[in-house]
C-alpha cells in the first residue's frame, strides 16, 4: 500500500512538473508580457502553479531549488509590473533587465524540472528491469512504456547529468541482463536492444566499451534472430566498426548471420543482408575469409537469382517502364524504390563494392578477395550467361 501511495504521489508531482516545464519553455521564448492585465499565458501558468504546488514540491528535498526559482520568478514579475507604472530611460532599462531575468529564471526552472523527471525515469527503469521473469501482462506493458520513454529521452541529445544518473544506477548492466535472458518476452528483449543502441548514439565513447567488454550482447542479438535484433546489430557495427566485427568473427557467429539469409522471413533476410554489407565494409581479412568459407557467394547468387533479386539490366528496364507510366522522380528515388521491391538485386556486386571501398582490407587484400569472389561466382552459376552478367557487375561495380 505504501509503494502504491508513493507511486500515486510521484505521478501527481510529475503532472505538475510537466505543466511547469511546458510553461517555462514558452516563457523563455516570450518573456515580455505587454501589460499587467495581459500577462503571458506562460507566466500566469507558472505563478498559479507556484501557489498551488507549493505543498507538493516541499515534500521532495530535491525540488527545493525549483521552489526557490519559482519564488524568484514571482518577485521578478512583481518588479516588472511596478516598473510599468513609471516612465523614462531608467524604467525602460529596468524592464529590459527584468525580462532578461525572467528568461534566465525560466531556463533554470526548466532545467530543474527535467533533472527531476530524469531521476524519476531512471529509477523507474531500473525498478522495471529488476522484475524477474516471467512478467505479468501489466509488468511487460509498463516495461515497454518505460523503455520507449527512455529511448526518446536519449534521442534528445547528450546530457552529462543524465549520463551520470545512468552510470550510477547501473542501468546498462540491467539492460544487458534482460537482453541475454531468454526467459524474458522477445518483444521486451528487442526493445532493450534498441535502448542499448540509443545509449551508443547518446555517447559512443562511454558505452561502446561496455558492449565490447563482453560478447554477451552481440551473441544475444544474433541468437534472437529477428529483424529488430539484426537492425540493432547493423547499427552497432556502423558505430563500433572493425572492433565489433572482430568480436563477431572471434565467436564464430558470422556463419550464423549468413544462415539467416536463408530464413523464410523476408524481413530477417533483408536485415541479414544489410549486416553482411556492413561486415564487408568494416571487416578485416579474417572476417571476410570467414564469410567466404561460410558459402556466402553461393547464397548471394541464389538470392540474386530469386524473384526478389535481379541485376542492373533489369533495373534499366524497370526504370523505362516507370517513365512510360509517367512517373517523374530522381534516379536516386527510382533506385530506392527498385531496391524496396528487389532487395537482393545485384547483391553479389554490392557486396564486392563494399569490400572495395571499405575500411577493413588492405589494397593487396582487396584484389585477392575480388578474385576469390569471381572464382566463386563462376563455380556456382548455373549458366555461362548468368556467370557473365554477375562477373561483369563485380568487375565494374554496382550502383543500386
UniProtKB/TrEMBL annotation:
Domain of life: Eukaryota
InterPro entries (alphabetical): ARM-like (IPR011989), ARM-type_fold (IPR016024)
PANTHER family: ARMADILLO-TYPE FOLD PROTEIN-RELATED (PTHR35834), ATAXIN-10 DOMAIN-CONTAINING PROTEIN (PTHR35834:SF2)
Protein name, UniProt field: ARM repeat superfamily protein
Annotated organism of origin: Actinidia rufa
Amino acid at each position: 500500500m505504501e509503494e502504491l501511495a508513493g507511486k500515486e504521489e510521484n505521478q501527481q508531482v510529475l503532472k505538475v512538473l510537466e505543466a511547469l516545464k511546458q510553461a517555462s519553455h514558452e516563457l523563455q521564448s516570450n518573456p515580455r508580457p505587454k501589460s499587467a492585465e495581459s500577462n503571458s499565458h506562460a507566466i500566469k501558468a507558472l505563478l498559479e502553479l507556484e501557489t498551488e504546488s507549493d505543498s507538493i514540491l516541499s515534500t521532495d528535498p530535491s525540488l527545493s531549488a525549483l521552489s526557490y526559482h519559482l519564488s524568484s520568478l514571482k518577485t521578478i514579475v512583481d518588479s516588472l509590473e511596478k516598473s510599468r507604472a513609471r516612465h523614462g530611460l531608467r524604467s525602460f532599462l529596468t524592464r529590459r533587465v527584468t525580462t532578461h531575468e525572467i528568461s534566465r529564471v525560466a531556463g533554470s526552472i526548466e532545467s530543474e524540472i527535467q533533472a527531476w523527471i530524469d531521476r524519476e525515469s531512471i529509477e523507474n527503469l531500473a525498478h522495471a528491469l529488476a522484475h524477474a521473469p516471467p512478467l505479468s501482462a501489466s509488468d511487460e506493458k509498463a516495461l515497454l512504456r518505460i523503455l520507449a520513454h527512455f529511448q526518446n529521452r536519449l534521442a534528445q541529445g547528450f546530457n552529462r547529468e543524465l549520463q551520470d544518473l545512468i552510470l550510477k544506477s547501473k542501468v546498462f548492466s540491467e539492460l544487458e541482463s534482460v537482453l541475454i535472458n531468454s526467459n524474458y518476452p522477445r518483444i521486451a528483449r528487442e526493445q532493450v536492444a534498441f535502448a542499448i543502441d540509443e545509449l551508443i548514439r547518446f555517447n559512443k565513447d562511454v558505452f561502446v566499451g561496455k558492449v565490447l567488454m563482453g560478447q554477451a550482447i552481440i551473441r544475444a542479438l544474433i541468437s534472437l534472430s529477428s529483424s529488430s535484433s539484426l537492425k540493432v546489430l547493423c547499427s552497432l557495427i556502423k558505430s563500433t566498426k572493425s572492433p565489433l566485427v572482430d568480436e563477431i568473427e572471434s565467436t564464430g557467429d558470422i556463419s550464423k548471420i549468413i544462415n539467416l539469409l536463408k530464413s523464410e522471413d523476408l524481413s530477417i533476410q533483408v536485415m541479414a543482408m544489410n549486416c553482411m554489407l556492413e561486415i564487408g565494409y568494416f571487416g578485416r581479412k579474417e572476417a571476410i575469409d570467414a564469410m567466404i568459407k561460410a558459402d556466402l557467394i553461393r547464397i548471394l547468387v541464389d538470392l540474386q537469382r530469386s524473384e526478389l533479386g535481379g541485376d542492373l539490366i533489369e533495373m534499366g528496364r524497370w526504370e523505362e517502364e516507370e517513365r512510360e507510366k509517367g512517373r517523374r522522380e530522381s534516379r536516386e528515388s527510382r533506385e530506392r524504390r527498385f531496391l524496396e521491391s528487389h532487395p537482393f538485386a545485384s547483391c553479389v556486386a554490392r557486396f564486392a563494392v563494399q569490400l572495395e571501398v571499405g575500411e577493413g582490407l588492405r589494397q593487396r587484400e582487396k584484389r585477392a578477395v575480388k578474385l576469390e569472389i569471381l572464382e566463386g561466382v563462376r563455380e556456382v552459376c548455373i549458366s555461362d550467361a548468368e556467370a557473365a552478367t554477375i562477373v561483369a557487375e563485380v568487375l565494374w561495380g554496382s550502383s543500386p
